[in-house]
Amino acid sequence: MQFDTLIQGGTIVTAADTYVSDIGIADGRIAAIASALPREAARQVLSAQGLYVIPGGIDVHTHLDMPFGGTTSADDFESGTIAAAHGGTTTLIDFAIQYKGQTLRTAFDTWMKKADGRAAIDYAFHCIVTDLPDARLEEMDALVRDGVASFKLFMAYPGVFMVDDGLIFKAMSQAARNGALICMHAENGSAIDVIVRRALAEGKTAPKYHALTRPTTAEAEATARAIALAEMAGAPVYIVHLSCNDALEKVREARDRGLPAYAETCPQYLFLSIENFDVPGFEGAKYVFTPPLREKWHQEKLWAGLAHDDLQVVSTDHCPFCYKEQKEMGKGDFTKIPNGGPGIEHRLSLVYTGGVAARRFSANRFVELVSTAPAKLFGLYPRKGTIAVGSDADLVLWDPNKEETISAATHHMRVDYSMFEGIKVKGAPRQVLVAGRLVIDNGKFVGKAGSGRFVKRNTYTGL
Ligand code: URP
Ligand code: ZN
Ligand code: ZN
Question: Which atom of ligand 1 is nearest to the CA of 288?
């Protein structure tokens, strides 16, 4: 057999197994996994001695080129996917937004145009639904048939994205029929709005009040409500960017009852806390995203949730806004700070550092959290999310001993600060392949913008 690329001598780590083997790649897919595959049969040989070979990371929550809060997220599909590749992410799922009055198809077409010709890694879309009269329900089915098999609904941001329980229940009932997965931004937006107005009336305008006006109870209440609505509709539900123990307990209770309830958390909730607002001047704006940062003790609860499968996925919610000019739009009024933070590049290194290097869970669980479970939940498995004959050759040659310090001075995201500035990580990609093409080689991007493919996803089948 002839291979385009042979990966030699690596320790293959999947969600299930750890073993030493070679991998032969042909036509963008894994063609053979065996010990001592012949070097002569390959055009290119990559040595993986001393390295792990893991399936490419899958980030199921990104916002590239997204209009939000009066501006647009700073990474587009070119800069964002290149930064993702640097960190070992080979597929992302972004959000196509349906604005009120629009068809769902318009949202999908708009975001397909944003990605086309720019993405350097493979990509797919969820659709954010803001308007769902009965006549539009069939549009959900049509999108599912076109590979957009999940929808995000917001219980927060009144007047922008927030929808009511009736719409949520209708969408969930439709998902129960068409096999889609509903992703839920779970915060009680109406109650938060009252708290925010009170704070502003009291002259509390600094960035930290973004966090102080969004209590954990508002997240827990909405999480429980989302789960209850999904139970009534007979649909699965996936809670996005879960930030606190109160909400985690609601997910755990549901899962203990056997409900198909899932949740992701993000590195910012694992590594940062409300203490990050203790910085001079307006700098706290760098940490304004939603849900907000919590007290430090929640971090350990979230790590335990990841270890014990109460949480199934780590995504980034990458939604970058530059400090200069974008975050600064909210000087004097925290509600005008565009919500979101940059993280697409460092997800794998941060989860490996806090999870595997810190001995909270195994390298197999790390792979499951950043690649396999996202692939399974969002209809990409087994094409992606594992290392098996026939799967896409989306592979990361992972150096478990590489130490780096995260900094805006060296990152590749198009944003002028890092939320994780100064954090030391252990574990980083040495080489990254997308569909058999080398895209990262020892810290250098060697891929091509525009070579990423849109991936049609299958319907939800569970984990
Ligand atoms: O602050 C955030 N998370 N911005 C992105 C939009 C969202 O709610 O996911
Ligand atoms: Zn959200
Ligand atoms: Zn988001």
Answer: 1
Distance CA 27, CA 392 (A): 9
| Domain ranges (residues) in the chain | 3-54+384-401+427-445, 56-377
Report which ligand 1 atom has the smallest distance to the Cα of 157.
8
State the pTM of this model.
Answer: 0.98
Q: Which two tokens stand for residue 21?
A: 């083997």
> Using one digit for the tens of pLDDT, what is the confidence trace for 320-352?
999 999 999 999 999 999 999 999 999 999 999
Contact residues of ligand 1, CB 6 A cut-off: 63, 185, 241, 289-290, 317, 319, 339-340
Distance CA 57, CA 52 (A): 13
Model confidence pLDDT, tens digit, residues 266-277:
999 999 999 999
- Is there a common fold for 3-54+384-401+427-445 and 56-377? no
Residues contacting 127, CB < 8 A, separation 6+: 95, 96, 97, 98, 104, 107, 108, 143, 148, 150, 151, 152
Which residue's CA is the closest to the ligand 1 atom numbered 8?
Answer: 290
CA 391 distance to own-chain centroid: 21
What pLDDT, in 10s, does the model give residues 63-76? 999 999 999 999 99
Neighbours of ion ligand 3 (CB under 5 A): 317
- Whole-angstrom Cα distance, residue 336 to residue 330? 4
Q: Which residue's CA is the nearest one to ligand 1's atom 5?
A: 340
Domain spanning 56-377: CATH superfamily: Metal-dependent hydrolases (3.20.20.140)
- Whole-number pLDDT of residue 187: 98
Amino acid (one-letter) located at 272: L
* Owner of token pair 């500035």: 421
Integer Cα distance of 431 and 368 in angstroms: 20
Structural class in CATH, domain 3-54+384-401+427-445: mainly beta
pLDDT tops 90 at residue 1: no
